[in-house]
Amino acid sequence: MEAADIHHIGNPTNRVDGRLKVTGAARYAAEYEAPGLLHGVIVSASVAAGRIVSLKTERALSVPGVVEIFTHENCGSGAWLDRNWKDEVAPPGHPFRPLHSDRILFDGQPIALVVAETLEAARDAASLVTAAYEVGQHCTELEVKRSQAYEPPEKRSGIPPPPEPRGKAEDAFERARHRISADYRIRAEHHNPMELFATTCVYEGKDKLTIYEKTQGSQNSQGYVTSVFGLKTKNVRVINHYVGGAFGSALRPQQQLFFAVMASLELKRSVRVVLTRSQMFYIGYRPETRHAISLAADNEGRLTSIIHDAVAATSHYEDYQESLVNWSGMMYHCDNVKLSYGLAKLNTATPCDMRAPGAAVGVTALECAIDELAHAAGIDPLEFRKRNFATLDENTGKQFTSKALGACYEQGAASIGWERRSAEPGAVRDGHELVGLGMATGMWEAALMKASAEAKLTPDGRLQVSTAASDIGTGTWTILAQIGADALGLPVGAVTPLIGDSSLSASPVEGGSWTAASNGSAVLAACEAVKQTVFKHARKMANSPLAAASFDEVVFLGGRIALRTDPDRGLSLAEVMHASDLREIKASRKAAPKLLQMRKYVSYTHSAVFAEVRVDRDLGIVRIPKIVCAVAAGKIINPKTARSQILGGVVMGIGMALHEEAMTDHRLGKIMNHNFAEYHIPAHADIADIKVIFVDEQDDKVSPLGVKGLGEIGIVGTAAAVANAIFNATGKRGRDFPITLDKIISG
Amino acid sequence: MDTPKIEIALTVNGARHDIAVAPWETLLDVLRERLHLTGSKKGCDQGQCGACTVLVDGERINSCLALAVSRDGAAITTVEGLAEGGELHPLQAAFIEHDAFQCGYCTPGQLCSGVALLHEGRAQTREDIRELMSGNLCRCGAYTNIADAIETALNRQNAGREAAE
């Protein structure tokens, strides 16, 4: 066997679930059958605040096939205590309890569930349920509530609040040679994964359920169900083998899970509940944010003051928080920094983490402001960023475990042809179009979370690796197989990964770009333990060629354990197991962050994004012929799936820059564009050439695998790079995202 | 009152199904709920996303917008019917090779749409592919890889035709 064949980590392996996905065989939450399956359709409120005075269900109940209609008046009894409704990632506050009372907190709130023998009957009947409301006062407009913004009294777990101010930011700003102040607005966005939120709850007998659920965390959903409905963990199994996208929207249990389980327990039958595309606009979203940024620099273009104040929307019942402004204190060196962040309550559902929550918008605002300051100082924006390079995290004073951002700047600039950029905005014309280049820096935390995994080797030379992780399109199935194959020296095809099942080893939710590092490291540790056991048995065998060897002197390859210096001298794994009469070798291990190391070091993924835009002079239409995203993310397990992660982040970043916004009629408190025709996401025709570069970055501290994670970094900085390129092309600053063509023409 | 049902015949992936459907059942729901062919996906149920794209008599349509009764007698190909005897369609193979999907949920629609595109003969350039595939949304952002996969399949098809001529 060639040496290259045994190194699976770093190979662009095709997805191991690829065949299932291209043949339609991969099953998603709504695609499981059960005998006598019932269909539930949710009825949504049509006002943004108030109380339900009456709900008329008679006509709906008369539709043939309707089994039951649940409302707040006859809803099954969920847990009484508020805390029982808190899921693993719930922000501080009082979690939403569907059908808990007659109160309406937001438009689109579920007010009834119609359950019927067929989908068509349930849908038809749901349209016949009518509600009368006592309409209350509502507000859905962030600008109106901005003056009432407050600092959340209870901090959200895992989200650092803004650091204490350092230096004297206001004084430094007043004294500075170059300065800018600007307001930025990034409108609310919706995750809109392609798969509709769905739960198929299979009733297996008294208080025992198998739940096929769209979730990023099978064990988070399992915990929610057992806690809310008082069921035993062993009686609730949640399966999410395939998840049709999520981007954060499936981190928390969504309303369809509650409804499917409640109806199933009440009716003692299997029930499926699927949300409509429209209803998915009411289950959490990226909140609108407003940013006021002031920056100053000295004669040499060195930052002397950074002031970033942001306000973000939340709901009336929970204080959803993000790390929104902290990035402004750590991306560049600056001695005088003042950061603040407040929340404003609106009549909407609680926002929900969406790809790079906090950074995707906070960094967009900062990176636009940096471009403005560089322009004011007459310095090339790339050069400006290099001059202000931060060598440590100045918010905490800790060192970075690695930061190959310089290489991202160099390689990204070379790829886009940065030298083509005209310093003067609006100077480059090509026919009807104005051409511009822009760039931005990106940053996301490289987290390692507690995770556990099991590895099991059998004499047929097959390895099974398992952990309750999820694959929401990220490639988790594939990289875990690669890690296992790499560790035991087996072909990838000899490894069976098992994920997407709450009965497997404990795992955090799939989010925050931590799955590859966390679950991957747990799998690696379990495989290492299996190898130790194999070695122990191999050495004990009669006439073992490895009798005198230490563990460091052996190598696993081609289904054998052999001497590293003389690979011909070894034993097949099957031989070893047969000799010791073992039917399997199994080990469970955990991965966890090193707390001692964390006192000195922080880990982040870095990127540099470069965009070329072409803007129609008369129509304001923006085209993006090329984007380059250069990323420093430690070791790349699978360059093929890793690249796809970055492509996806960049495409969503283009959406933020040009397309995506929830349009709310604030008089009614209603989202008006709750569908794909009017809530625009990038389509095929919007996306041209995207170049992804992974720069070399060695990091032996970030995680046992040296992996940093890639799910978020692609979106961070992309919208700013596009906005800055539009300025370079047209001389017009887009400070209100998305930068639609009307803003360019009128701006 | 019992629901009125209408007898229709659909040939799906070569197999004939005689079924009684209510007049308001969409082709997509009949495929998914009645025939248990869940490869065709429901992403919006409004003809806006393309996840439900299937081939009806060789032509790509949004099956969520078609009532099953209006397709009586039609020959339908879903993603489950693209491979022949365990051999993937060249476009399916190209999708795997180019990593033209992530979550996989829009994939059946992209594939059916792409297969129709290859037959339509309208796409000559990459720009054509992007334009003519714009009815199929992908939230994971695999567009460039999907275009690569279709371009690969298109080039192979054209090369095959030239060789035959």
List the SSEs and their pairings:
The complex is a heterodimer of chains A (747) and B (165).
Chain A: H1 3-6, H2 18-22, E1 38-44, E2 50-56, H3 58-61, E3 66-71, E4 103-104, E5 110-116, H4 119-126, E6 130-135, H5 142-145, H6 169-175, E7 178-186, E8 198-203, E9 209-213, H7 218-229, E10 236-239, H8 255-267, E11 271-274, E12 289-297, E13 303-314, E14 337-345, H9 359-377, H10 381-387, E15 392-393, E16 398-400, H11 405-416, E17 429-430, E18 433-445, E19 451-458, E20 462-466, H12 476-488, E21 495-498, H13 515-540, E22 554-557, E23 560-563, E24 570-572, H14 573-579, E25 585-591, H15 595-598, E26 601-602, E27 604-616, E28 622-632, H16 639-659, E29 664-665, E30 670-671, E31 689-694, H17 718-730, E32 736-737, H18 741-746
Parallel strand pairs in A: 1-11, 7-32, 9-10, 13-14, 16-26, 20-21, 28-31
Antiparallel strand pairs in A: 1-5, 2-4, 2-6, 3-5, 7-12, 8-9, 8-11, 12-13, 15-16, 17-18, 18-27, 19-20, 19-25, 22-23, 23-24, 27-28, 29-30
Helix pairs in contact in A: 9-17, 12-13, 16-17
Chain B: E1 6-12, E2 15-21, H1 27-34, E3 53-56, E4 59-62, E5 75-77, H2 90-97, H3 107-120, H4 126-132, H5 143-164
Parallel strand pairs in B: 1-5
Antiparallel strand pairs in B: 1-2, 3-4, 3-5
Helix pairs in contact in B: 2-5
